[in-house]
Amino acid sequence: MRYHTPSTFEDAAQLAAGAQGLTRFLAGGTDVLVQMRAGSVLPDDLIDIKKIPGVSDITKTDDGGWRIGVAVPGHKLGADAALRADWPGVVEGMELVGSTQIQGRATLAGNLCNGSPAADGVPGLVAAGATVEITGPDGTRTAKVEDVPTGPFKTSLAQGEVISAILLPPRGPNGGDAYLRFIPRTEMDIAVVGCAVSLTLDGDTISDARVALGAVAPVIALAPDAAKAIVGTTLDDAALDALARAASAACKPIDDKRGTVEFRTEVAGVLAKRAAKIAYARAKGA
Amino acid sequence: MAKDEFKEYRLVGTRPDRPDGLDKVTGRARYGADMSAPGMLWAAVVRSPHAHAKILKIDASKAEALDGVKAVVTRADFPTGLTGEEWNLQENTMAGEKALYDGHAVAAVAATSKLLAEEAARLIEVEYEVLPHVIDVDDAIKPDAPVIREGAANASVPEGMPPNVVQYLDFGRGDIEAGFAEADLVSEKTYKTEATHQGYIEPHACLGQLGEDGKGEMWVCTQGQWFIRKMCSDVLGLDTAQLRVTPSEIGGGFGGKTTIFMEPLSLALSRKAGGKPVKLVMSRSEVLRATGPTASASMDVKIGMKKDGTITAARAEFRMQGGAFPGSPVDMALYCCFAPYKLENVQHIGYDVLANRPKCAAYRAPGSPMGAFAVESLLDEMCRELGVDPMEMRLKNAVVEGDTASYGPKYGSIGLVETLEATKAHPNLKAELGPNQGRGMASGYWFNHNGETSVSLAISEDGTAQVSIGTPDIGGSRASIALMTAETLGIPYEDVRVNVVETGALGVNEPTHGSRATFASGKAAVIAAGQAIKEMCKRAANEWGIDPEAVEWADGAAQPAGPNAGKFPPMTIAEIAGKMGSTGGPISGHHESVPEGVGASFGCHVVDVEVDPETGHVKILRYLVVQDAGRAIHPSYVEGQYQGGAAQGIGWALNEAYIYDENGKLQNSVFLDYRVPVASDLPMIDTVIVEVPNPGHPYGVRGVGETGITPPLPAIANAIQAATGARLHDLPMSPPKVLAAIKAMG
Amino acid sequence: MSKMHVTTTVNGDTVEFLADPRETLLDSLRDQLGLTGTKEGCGTGDCGACSVRLDGTLVCSCLVLGVEADGKRIDTIEGMSEDGALHPLQRKFIEHAALQCGFCTPGILIAAKALLEENSNPTEEEVRYWLAGNLCRCTGYDKIIRAVMDAAAELRQEAA
Ligand SMILES: Cc1cc2nc3c(=O)[nH]c(=O)nc-3n(C[C@H](O)[C@H](O)[C@H](O)COP(=O)(O)OP(=O)(O)OC[C@H]3O[C@@H](n4cnc5c(N)ncnc54)[C@H](O)[C@@H]3O)c2cc1C
Ligand code: FES
Ligand code: FES
Fold first, then answer.
1. Which of A113, B105, B601, C122 has its C-alpha lying 20 to 30 A from A35's C-alpha?
2. What does the pLDDT average to over A59-76?
3. Is Oxidoreductase among this UniProt entry's keywords (chain A) (predicted)?
């Protein structure tokens, strides 16, 4: 295996584009090294992107949104009070990833590009309407976060494409988001179900909402019917029940070592309700 | 909350720093993988990806062609003609004609680096013919189940039993039907437990060296260096005394490190590589796939109870698979399951069944937790139905000294009633419970064990003492043995050094298992100290010119026994030791035996849980362990055993389980998915050390390591029912199952 | 595979070694530098036995490559006691019997030290969640949590 430390995204993209064998980018390594250890992914070229200037920065953009560097580890994301104030659901999703030790390394970009349907950092991004900046051998493009994963551990990134930043839109007034996941223990588990809700209020009424579900389908995806169920409501009990039903209906889960179809479907509804309540309270300024 | 004061003792019952503490908080302590040797090679093992498959061909040519690969071994490198358990051990170490479970070793390779060995292992090509497999014990016992091995059944199995039954048990007493006829309520239910792993954090590791002359050495993390020596010798056809085995510090065992798994491979590779030392360290996934686990069980229990809670009769029929080899602890599960109860009419039936899983190893009170899950759950269900208080039911039926145990022997001194009374008095039983919260209780039992024991003690020139023991220190036994030795010799605790020694230094010792180290090595150390005291009294008597009988030992010194013996100032151990060279030579003591006087231990646990009714998530709010220790030599480490046992039981009850896919492949061979409790899963674990001294031990020790894992399984099931009304009969009580049980109630 | 030259600071000392790029920092520490106090319990980030500080950040050394340590500062259990004096956490672990087999202990001590530097007065719950990535199979965590809380109290007193 060859280990590279390019100093620009362009170089990283060129290296990857020109590589013959199996290539991986290395951010926090908390997926890559596990896969190497298991022997399931043995890269010929490993391209460490942490030496590229700016990759560890979190910056507020001119329009009031955010640009998150691709090497920002979870603990650093959590320490940014202003970012958390805008997008608590995005931050808390990433903070759920692994242990304190994992938080010292794991990145949002790695979480997304690993392509796990259960990635905890991703539903919050999807609900927030985040995008990614992608650098390829022929320049850069942007894409919606939900368009990156295409199936379990598969992404739409072409050979040689590297994500060079994660972009969050401006939060704007009266907004709130939240992410909840279900795991059997209290820590150190992969989500059996995950749900992020982002909403905006007009007075007490929800004027806009996005609901994203994790671990209940081959890819993390928006559940538009679930969002519809609460838009125009004050999140009363009837709206919550409708939300839960719609979230459950949006599930296309599998039975596996972590949970059953029945359980995932049921709990997706439960989490959607609970996450919506938190997001609503946050939007109210609680 | 230990009773720390036993006024008659100076040291026993105190909590000094453990002798190996400093090494263990500074990273200096050397565990299995921490040793290296000059010229050392690294080994890696090729394992079957199939649950059951014929091995057609092994081609190692690509691996052998790599620069730096020094040896490859397969079963062909092992002696043939072994039988019985020796064959089982050899077959489990390295598959022969068939791979019997996912993870079964089929070849091993040694190379000049770890990465190279792993690469070489990936290049070894094995051709398999996949065979039908069976995983679940109830499937494995079916008459038409895939046959794992012909002729594995022993003489206990009657003609006509299904092919995978390898042992059959049927014992009991009284008139079971008459007993049920006397009852006001007779209940019969089926319970299942899944296999769990001991989950010690240190993976198996060894450094072995074996020459062409059949002489070898091994450094290994193990609970029993003599077991390793014997088993490796058997499997490789060596003379036992030619192998010297040194135990490393051990990073947990819980029974799982009382046997061999891959140790002979390092020796076989070393021999093939011209005697170079070979280091072999398992990965976590190898540990989970190919070592350890417990049996899984399917259990029918039938109990008769009167309205006042009196148990009139009980019957248990247990089926257990312990992997592809005989040896599930179905016998011990049956012995322990009714042990806390007075029973006139009782019947036990057991089946040991083969399945395509790894060979089970001992795990903390082997068998007892499964049996307790079935029996203590059913008793709780029956108490509910009859409106009987479960604590009063336990007290009413509790066995006492002199009673005949459900499994036959007469109980000596036991402390069950004292344990139950102490539980009843604990404030946790009065703590208020909120919505979705419930309390559950259960009892547990373990025999404790003696085993072959050999200990030497020697007095040093300055009057300090060294004790050589053969039982590795897993959880503070050096401290407790030093306390007892120092107490006996009348010297400071710090003046005793306890060494865990290699096989060349003592006669055969059984491992640290069966909760025996503090009991057996401790008892032998006290007897050896007594011999040294006798010799020191003799030396003083000689110097004083009086009869040795007229000298007694007190406060670390020889003293004239009363005024008639003469007037001499006490002669201290340091004075006697300082001149031992000229008064008759070294002063020592040595004791070896299978010590009599084992004292059994009962425990009672009470747990409060809160269940999320929408997700089935169970949170442990409060946990209480009450257990009879006989006497707590070092109370902190007794509490530690109680707490650790409870935590493992909680894991077993809630989330730990072997999960297989339809091809019989283990799905959760990493800690992320093999879910042992993490720190945030647990509350503080309250303990009460009950002390009903064991008359069979000089300081009253019973052994405390194992009972504590037994009650949590049923106690939590009982608490979940109290919280939700739903009763779970299958482990683990994971959220999907709990939620389904809640929903099923409508 | 060609090895790469790595220069790094371990417990305050500059060290150099040649690392196969596939080799983890854990293996570099243990097999190249002889620092075997850092343990491997899983090799996949799940147990915390391999915890070290990398430029001050708490990480699993099994999930860092040896070559990534180039130019960085690493702190391991071997550097925890200063000038022969045990860190209060180390003392409290012995005093509270917070170890049984001791295999998890180095990783837990390293992780707990990082916690107390960040939060000098953690609640029981904060300690439990911070240490959730450090598995201990022997103790049920009770005495570990008590030892950490007690060490925190002592350190606060010292600072006062
Ligand atoms: C013990 C443990 C616990 C965990 N718990 C959780 C959990 O609770 N929830 C959860 O979601 N995950 C969990 N994970 C998985 C993992 O930590 C996360 O997915 C993490 O966010 C990955 O980030 P990383 O920076 O470490 O990625 P890396 O391992 O560096 O990379 C992951 C993948 O993304 C690719 N990649 C990385 N950066 C880029 C980029 N900029 N452009 C293109 N491709 C890129 C890599 O090539 C690789 O394929 C856990 C892992 C461990 C070891
Ligand atoms: S060895 Fe690194 S976390 Fe377990
Ligand atoms: S003390 Fe053994 S794992 Fe923690």
1. B105
2. 98
3. yes
Q: What are phi and psi of C13, to 5 degrees?
A: -100, 140
C1 band by pLDDT with thresholds 50, 70 and 90? low
- Is the predicted pLDDT of residue B158 greater than 90, yes or no? yes
State pLDDT tens for residues C9-38. 999 999 999 999 999 999 999 999 999 999
> How far apart are alpha carbons B192 and B320 in whole angstroms?
10
- Residue with the bigger pLDDT between C82 and B48: it is B48
Give the count of domains, chain B. Answer: 1
If 0-12 CB within 10 Å is exposed, 13-18 middle and 19+ buried, where does residue B534 land? middle
- Closest residue by Cα to residue A89 from A58, A129, A31: A129
ipTM tops 0.90: yes
Q: What is the CATH number of the domain that holds C119?
A: 1.10.150.120
B678 CB near ligand 1 (under 6 Å): no
CATH of the domain at A81: 3.30.465.10
Cβ atoms < 10 Å from Cβ of A7: 11
Burial B583-620 (b: 16+ CB within 10 A, else e): beeebbbbbbeebebbbbbbbbbbbbbbbbbbbbbbbb
Q: What is the pLDDT of residue B3?
A: 42
In angstroms, what is the span from residue B123 Cα to ligand 3's centroid? 36
The backbone torsions φ and ψ at residue C65, rounded to the nearest 5 degrees and listed phi first, read -80, 150
| pLDDT greater than 70 at residue B5 | no
Secondary structure, 3-state, C30-70: HHHCCCCCCCCCCCCCCCCCCEEEECCEEEEHHHCEHHHHC
Contacts of C81 in chain B (CB under 8 A): 26
- Owning domain of residue C52: 4-79
**Going along chain C, which residue ranges are E strands?**
4-10, 13-19, 51-54, 57-60, 73-75
Residue-wise pLDDT for B61-70, tens only, equals 999 999 999 9
pLDDT interval class at A141 (50, 70, 90): very high
Query: Which tokens sit at C38?
Result: 């850092």
pLDDT band at B2 (very low <50, low <70, confident <90, very high): very low
Kindly report the CATH number assigned to the domain that includes residue A246: 3.30.390.50
What pLDDT score was predicted for residue B4? 44
Residue A193 contacts residue A214 (beta carbons within 8 Å): yes
B296 lies in a domain?
no
Give the integer Cα–Cα distance in Å for B496 and B476. Answer: 14
CB B674 within 8 A of CB B199: yes
Task: Give the mean pLDDT of chain B.
Answer: 97
pLDDT, tens only, B223-244: 999 999 999 999 999 999 999 9
Residues of B in contact with C41 (CB under 8 A): 201-203, 251, 284, 671
Q: Give the residue from B564, B555, B562, B563 showing the smallest Cα distance to B536.
A: B555
Interface of B with A in 120-139 (CB under 8 A): 122
Q: Which domain holds residue B547?
A: 450-593
CATH number of the domain at B472, please. 3.30.365.10
Range of the domain at A97: 52-168
The reply to whether the predicted model has a pTM over 0.95 is yes
Contacts of A260 in chain B (CB under 8 A): 736
C94 Cα: distance to centroid of ligand 3 (angstroms) = 13
A111 secondary structure, DSSP code? H
Q: Supply the DSSP symbol for B744.
A: H
* Residue A13 located in a structural domain: no
In the sheet where B557-560 sits, what is the strand order?
B551-554, B557-560, B571-572
Cβ atoms of B351 and B299 within 8 Å: the answer is no
Q: Could you give the CA distance from residue B353 to residue B167 in angstroms, rounded to a whole number?
A: 7
- As a whole number of angstroms, the distance between CA B48 and CA B56 comes to 12
The Cα–Cα gap between B549 and C136 comes to: 52
- What is the spatial distance between Cα A124 and Cα A86, in angstroms, rounded to a whole number? 12
